[in-house]
Amino acid sequence: MRLQALIIAGVLLAAVVPTVLVAVVALTYANGITAPILISSAIGLVLGGLLAITLARRVTRPLAGFREFAMNIARGKFGGQVEHHSDDELGELAKTFNYMSASIEAYDAETQRLADDVESGYLETIVALANSLDSKDPYTRGHGQRVAELAVAIGRHLKLSEVELKQLKYGGILHDIGKIGIVEAILLKQTRLNDSEMETMRAHPLIGDHIIKPVRLLSTVRAAVRNHHEWWDGTGYPDRLKGEAIPLMARIIAVADTWDACTSTRPYQVALAEEDALAVIDRLTGNHLDPSLAPALKQVILERKTGGRPRPEVKKAS
Questions:
Q1: Between 68 and 4, where is the model more confident?
Q2: What is the Cα gyration radius of the chain?
Q3: Would you state the pLDDT for residue 36?
Q4: Domain finish residue from 77, 110, 128
Q5: Per-residue model confidence as pLDDT tens digits over 242-277
Q6: Of these residues, 95, 166, 179, 315, which one is catalytic?
Q7: Can you give the residue range of the structural domain that contains 14?
Q8: Is residue 39 included in any domain, yes or no?
Q9: 242 an active-site residue?
Q10: Nearest alpha carbon to residue 77 among 87, 65, 86, 68
Q11: Fewer CB within 10 Å, N side or C side of the chain?
């Protein structure tokens, strides 16, 4: 609007100056301003005003399109085009903007492809780390992958974002990575651990956090590695966090981890039947596990049984 006003003012000024000079000459050398001079001056002013408005609109209307185009680029909407078909300077500017937009869109696509490649390599590195633990402790082979899949399914029921679901996936795969630092005599013991051995085993979240801390790309899953053994009532480890002070990612993985531990065969434990595992989840809900997550877990288990077709739970008669 300021440019439009400036153009109108400039053109009007160009029309007014000659009119004023004519009036001065008429007053000086003639017998005053005659009717023909007055009419001519009025017509000149009107034509100047119309010319000013037309010229201002011709210049400023395309600029509004350029402004909208630039705002779309700033918002990340690449590939847009400015509609301006004249052969003047504004038309050349529009062609330049359109070429820039197409180039940015191509660069963005290439950048996204490279980012996908980096993420793919990132995931392969995570899987390799998890496999190194599986090779050391064959009794937990596949545990991290199963926990990751279950945690992501729970996250979907909670309507978490795709970014958060990826963090759950990576966090689930890596949550026990710290067990690499536990001596095999304890890690592979065929009977239950004594108090001293259990204390050593409980160091694995801290060891895992120490392992992944230098890796910047893994910073978003540190909570899953460090805090998946925190308990809802504050009696867990290593930080004794309580309730919602425990990061949501760690709480979700704790539920998935508990379920997989209950339903997997280990040297000192036979896998529980589904009803018995659900009873364990119910018993731990509210003290060890976040009570808001048990319904999502049960829904996931139900959908797995029914091939993805959820059925409403039937309440038992009291």
A1: 68
A2: 37
A3: 64
A4: 77
A5: 999 999 999 999 999 999 999 988 777 789 999 999
A6: 179
A7: 2-77
A8: yes
A9: no
A10: 68
A11: C
Residue-wise DSSP of 87-130: SSHHHHHHHHHHHHHHHHHHHHHHHHHHHHHHHHHHHHHHHHHH
CATH number of the domain to which 287 belongs: 1.10.3210.10
Of 274, 297, 304, nearest in space to 157 by CA: 297
Domain membership flag for residue 240? yes
In 25-101, at which residue ranges do the beta strands (DSSP E only) sit?
none
The tokens for 74 are 């700033």
pLDDT of 140 > 80? The answer is no
Number of domains in the chain: 2
Report how far apart, in Å, the C-alpha atoms of 3 and of each of 68, 69, 89, 249, 286 are: 17, 18, 17, 54, 66
Please give the average per-residue pLDDT across 143-171, as a whole number: 94
Q: In whole angstroms, give the CA distance from residue 7 to residue 52.
A: 7
Encoded amino acid at 137, one letter? D
Q: Are 233 and 274 in contact (CB under 8 A)?
A: no
Side-chain-side CA neighbours of residue 205 (13 Å): 23
* Same domain for 299 and 153: yes
Per-residue pLDDT, averaged over 162-167, amounts to 93
Q: Residue 22 pLDDT more than 50?
A: yes
- The residues, any chain, with a CB within 8 Å of residue 191's CB and separated by 6 or more, are 267, 268
Q: Residue 111: inside a domain, yes or no?
A: no
